[in-house]
Amino acid sequence: MAANASSWNPKPNRKKILLDILTYAALVIIIFCVDLPFISMFGTALKGRSEALSSPALFPAEWKFDSFGQVLTGTTFGNNIFNSAVVAVTVTVCCIMFAVCAGYAISRFRGVVFNFYSVFVLLLQMFPGTLMMIPLFVIFKNLNMVDTLYSVMFAYTTLNLPFSIWMTKGFFDTIPIDIEEAAQIDGCNQFSGFLRVVLPISMPGISTVGIFTFINAWGEYTLASIFLRSDSIGTLTIGLQKFVLQYTSDWPALMAASCIATIPTLIFLLVAQKYLIQGMSAGAVKG
Amino acid sequence: MAMSSSKPARKGKKLKNNRLGYAMLVPATLLISLISLYPLLNGIYLSMFDYNLMRPKKRRFVGAGNFIEILTKDSEFYSTLAYSFIYAFFVVLISYIMGLCFALLLNREIKGRGIFRMLILIPWVIPSVVAATNWMWLLNDQLGFINRTLTGMGLIGKPILFLAEATTARVTVIFTGAWKSFPFMMITLLAGLQGISKDLYESAQMDGAGFFRSFYYITMPMLKPVTTISTVLMFIWTFNNFENIYLLTRGGPVDATFVLPILSYYTAFLRSNIGYASAIASIMLVVLMILAMLYMKLLKNRETYS
Amino acid sequence: MKKRFATLLAVLLAAAQLGACAGGGSSASTPDPAPAAPESSNPSPAADSPAPEESQAAPAGATKITHWEMVNGPAATYGDAAASIVDRFNAENDQNIFVELQMTPWDNFYQTFLTAITSGAAPDTSTGASGQPIQYAVMGEILDLQPIVDQWNAEGSSVPSELPPGGLQTMTYDGILTGIPWAIDPRGFVYRTDYFEQAGIANPPTTWDEFLDCCAKLKAALPDVVPFVFGGGDQMGGQTILNFLVQNDTGLTDENTQADFTNSRVIETLELFGKLYDNGYISEGTASYKGSDAEKMYYSGTAAIWFNGPPAGLKDYPDVEKVSAIMPVMKGPSGSSARNYIWMNSIMAYTQTESPDACRSFIKFWIENELPLWTEGGCSQVPSVSSNSSNEYFQNIWYQKQFAELIIPNSVPTCYPAPAAYPAFSQIEGEDYYGKALQAVITGNRDYAAIAQTAHDQIAKALADYAE
């Protein structure tokens, strides 16, 4: 909690160094606790089978990578990762486009519709998802979309819209309207003013929406398990679930599979976290 | 994330070309109507029927019948509702506090901030089923790392039954729920913190304010919009979340951690009673709506007084 | 700034394009069931899907049906084995039937099936949980499979007589044959012979008293080992108590399929678990274990006796496997004979199908030719057709052999003592009312009468719901 104090401390001094050390110590301890399931997953994946079950140590005495090889050769993860990537990218792009439009409209226009739209989308989140399955299934069946990736693409895009609309609206709220008015004087119509002037300065916020959406779409399981029946279009969570259910006895292999399923997201996060926070601070949350 | 209440900069100043505005709402509205709104209206419609999937032909309109039965006779509903509240409330509270602490820590300009942020975001991106399997094994009373370490250090005499005892199980699922949710809180709060101008703190320091004073008078008020929307969203998401508890305890032991999403799932897919399940879900919707409205109103009022 | 935005827009568009193309591509490369299913008269709906590498494309004009196969064995091999049977059927049948196979995970299957059936998108045929055919038959969604049996009889086939005795009768509901058992999934106790030796136990127990005595000896001789382990936190808990219930001559209902969970034989069973818990014969955390936790504890050597099905995963732990055996069946204090219970898993067809005869042909072929599910697929259950289960393959797997000799001949179906499977079973099993009774006991509740009454009322309510 003492952290914030030093960020406005004019000169780095002994107090700052002490605080830094405390911060690092606190972070290391906390991250160890918070990531314990992840650490144990990674450590177990490196163990032999008997050791994995009997040894309480988090990491094995000798690191074995056999389980990773076994998983990579014995599963359809390559295909699953490809499907997940296709879904997540498409959903992210669509969601950004629709949310940006809607967010801009709510932020900039006057009228009952615009005033209540964001409350309306919030409301839709309040109905438990399990009961939406049957009507949703009927819709996709009528659209001939059951057992195609389109079904989950449509569903994920829609389910991510409310939060994305709230975020983008928050962004646009912080951008002074004068900028567009200036552009209109320069001969832009309002839409091209939006495209050419407002969007570019909202890029940080848009990347945040994108990252949130991407991660949600990448990790969704329930809908995918209902709508994607064929093996060839299974997403990563489906592939992982099938593996989890079948390899209860081979604990290291199970954990290796979990690692493989998690690692792409971690790399993505490492790259994306910078934009995530930049983007959010650029406006979405200031109000 | 902006609250409609706080945009003094351009109050009253809005664009006039409403036709463009409506046009820009069309794509999102179309998708939302088809995929979110229709199932929701369908659910509300079905909640007025005695409709069992095993007897689709005997479906009949009962009006408020299901609601009356739930609210007046269903003791299972009330006991489930009570824990659902407690669960969602504490998950939001704990994840908020954790998120705030980490956000404050990571807002410091330290080396390797990026790596630390990624490591803290792990709970958010780890697939639920993987997280649950690992938690169960870590918490196991005989072989679990946590119990073995604590016993080894002599801190506890006998293993803690994290999931095998009603009270501890209730607490444990709250913690795993908060564990999964706090990274979201942290990101939104961190973003909020980064949006606070450093000048504010500097002038506060010149006035002789210490850390806690500036935290109370600058940080917290400036974080209020973020706090409001992220806690409301998190409450809704947690209240409706099925996975976290189901994967860990399936609502047990002996219904100790049974929550409304599990009840509506069981009612719909095991008791096949879609009408009744829809009525439960509709009540959840109304309850959440009222709560969200009260909460936002409360925060708004406090804002105007201060 | 303009330039940066132009670049970004280009990237976004390119990404959208890529997404759209790849999305279309990947769903086209699978035989798309949607256009093909409704119009069997249409010349060749699947033929124009541009997928040259697709080996399983339906031939022109074929009658197409979709089969959902539950993942009943190791994912890597079981799916391939099921596919090989389907491929053989597609190649050999002379009615131009094409079956598309879709592997279905067990997890969440209530929702998966009920959603599809209610939405009019049921598969044509499927395997599934043992209560499933009768439950869906109540909805009018299950196709009568009696014609298959009639055809077998007409052909003079031995298959009907090789099915488990009463197997077809238990699957009959309201005059129709709702499913044909393709496998028997037995339950039993796996135990460590070396631990038994160290504790000085000469013979495995045959009664509950001997079982308690055996646990006491194990606990005394090996203080770090949990005498008995089972998954008390998921469906395995219910399965464990159900096994003890049938050993004590009772079950979830009485002979007339009425709730009967308050009788003295049930109370005795609950008391047994109370003793197991109070004496530390099961670990205190049992109520939180999933079946897979119990499995891990047995494999790690932490437990001496483990309630489960055939332990196929033991092959990964050869040191434990060599000292493992299956315990013979036991008898409760009020039991008339020693026994366990078995699941009978059926294959079924749905009335939503456009081609009932094609479904029946496929199911008939499946039952007659299912052996590769074991020999190639490593399925851990036992074939329902006795000539298959006496195949040499099973003689070489010690646990299959012991289950076949010790358990299956002394077993009753899950509906015992009711004469036939009943529709409410799926709900009772899914909500695990009897498993919750067990959980109450192993979390310290000793008011056995009240626990039994609660479960009794829940079972009675479920039965009444279906009787409406």
Give the low-confidence spans of chain A. Answer: 1-9, 283-287
Spatial separation of the terminal alpha carbons of chain A: 25 Å
Q: Provide the structure class of chain C.
A: alpha/beta
Bulk shape of chain A = globular
Per CATH, which architecture of the largest domain in chain C? 3-Layer(aba) Sandwich
Which value, in Å, is the CA radius of gyration of chain A?
Answer: 24 Å
Give, in order, the helices and strands of chain A. HHHHHHHHHHHHHHH
Indicate the radius of gyration of chain C in whole angstroms: 25 Å
Shape label of chain C: globular
CATH topology type of the largest domain in chain A: MetI-like fold
Characterize the largest beta sheet of chain C: strand count, sense, and whether it forms a barrel: 7 strands, mixed
Q: Which oligomerization state do the chains in this entry correspond to? A: heterotrimer
Report the count of strand segments of chain A. Answer: 0
CATH fold-type name of the largest domain in chain C: D-Maltodextrin-Binding Protein, domain 2
Hey, roughly how much beta strand do the residues of chain A contain? under 5%
Beta-strand share of residues of chain C: 5-15%
What does this structure look like?
- The complex is a heterotrimer of chains A (287), B (306) and C (468).
- By secondary structure, chain A is an all-alpha fold.
- Chain A folds into 2 domains: 3-65, no CATH class; 71-284, Orthogonal Bundle (MetI-like fold).
- Chain A is built from 15 helices and no strands.
- Chain A has helices at residues 3-7, 14-34, 36-45, 49-54, 66-74, 77-108, 112-124, 133-142, 149-174, 178-185, 190-201, 203-219, 222-227, 236-246, 251-284.
- The longest helix of chain A is centred in the C-terminal third of the chain and has 34 residues, at 251-284.
- The radius of gyration of chain A is 24 Å and the shape is globular.
- Chain B folds into 2 domains: 29-73 and 244-278, no CATH class; 88-241, MetI-like fold.
- By secondary structure, chain B is mainly alpha-helical.
- Chain B has helices at 18-46, 65-73, 75-106, 113-125, 128-139, 145-152, 166-194, 198-206, 211-239, 243-249, 260-269, 274-305, and strands at 49-50, 60-61.
- A two-stranded antiparallel sheet of chain B has the order 1-2.
- Chain B is globular and about 75 Å long.
- With 468 residues, chain C is of the alpha/beta class.
- Chain C has 2 domains: 63-185 and 344-395, D-Maltodextrin-Binding Protein, domain 2, CATH 3.40.190.10; 188-342 and 413-467, 3-Layer(aba) Sandwich (D-Maltodextrin-Binding Protein, domain 2).
- Chain C has 22 helices and 13 strands.
- Chain C has helices spanning 2-28, 33-36, 75-92, 109-118, 132-138, 146-155, 159-162, 167-170, 193-198, 208-221, 235-247, 264-278, 291-299, 318-321, 356-368, 372-375, 386-389, 392-395, 398-407, 425-431, 433-441, 448-467; strands at 63-70, 97-104, 125-127, 172-173, 176-177, 180-186, 188-192, 226-229, 303-308, 324-326, 340-349, 382-383, 411-413.
- In chain C, the strands form 3 sheets. In chain C, strands 1, 2, 3, 6, 11, 12 and 13 form a 7-stranded mixed sheet that branches.
- In chain C, helix 11 (235-247) packs across helix 21 and helix 21 (433-441) runs antiparallel to helix 22.
- Chain C is globular.
- The model of chain C is unreliable at 1-55 (pLDDT under 50).
- Classes of the chains: A mainly alpha (287), B mainly alpha (306), C alpha/beta (468).
- Chains in contact: A-B, A-C, B-C.
